[in-house]
Design goal:
Helix content: under 10%
CATH topology: OB fold (Dihydrolipoamide Acetyltransferase, E2P)
Number of helices: 1
Strand content: over 45%
Number of domains: 1
Structural class: mainly beta
CATH architecture: Beta Barrel
Distance between the termini: 22 Å
Number of strands: 7
Shape: globular
Largest sheet: 5 strands, mixed, barrel
Strand order of the largest sheet: 3-4-5-7-6
CATH class: Mainly Beta
Length: about 120
């Protein structure tokens, strides 16, 4: 069953491909705040401060881990070196949150607690 994750205004819904809400899934996420997502771990480069791509000679290059799922790319927030898992299918566990700063390069991020 295809699961889509929609995050809007800090409200999280888990919807099936036939647009039915799976109430048990929503309750599980609301109770613990923790989700497990699967996908391929990649590293992507984005422009950083001070101008985030407007001046490529002076702007920093930020290389961040991104989980590529079937439905979205989700930046992983962690201090761990995940290079040994690059381009491998992984299961990532953590809390989702909306992008808040210029260092957040996807709409939704995962505060990573565990990856395998």
């Amino acid at each position: 069953m295809l699961v889509k994750i929609l995050v809007s205004c800090s409200v999280l819904f888990v919807a099936c491909s036939n647009n039915e809400i799976k109430e048990e899934s929503v309750k599980e996420i609301q109770d613990s705040g923790v989700v497990t997502l699967t996908g391929t771990l990649t590293y992507q480069r984005f422009w950083g401060a001070p101008n985030y791509g407007e001046d490529t000679l002076t702007d920093a290059k930020e290389i961040v881990p991104v989980l590529k799922t079937d439905t979205a790319d989700i930046q992983l927030v962690t201090n761990k070196n995940l290079r040994s898992l690059e381009n491998k299918k992984v299961s990532a566990r953590g809390k989702l949150f909306d992008a808040q700063t210029g260092h957040h390069h996807t709409n939704v991020l995962l505060d990573l607690k565990e990856i395998k």
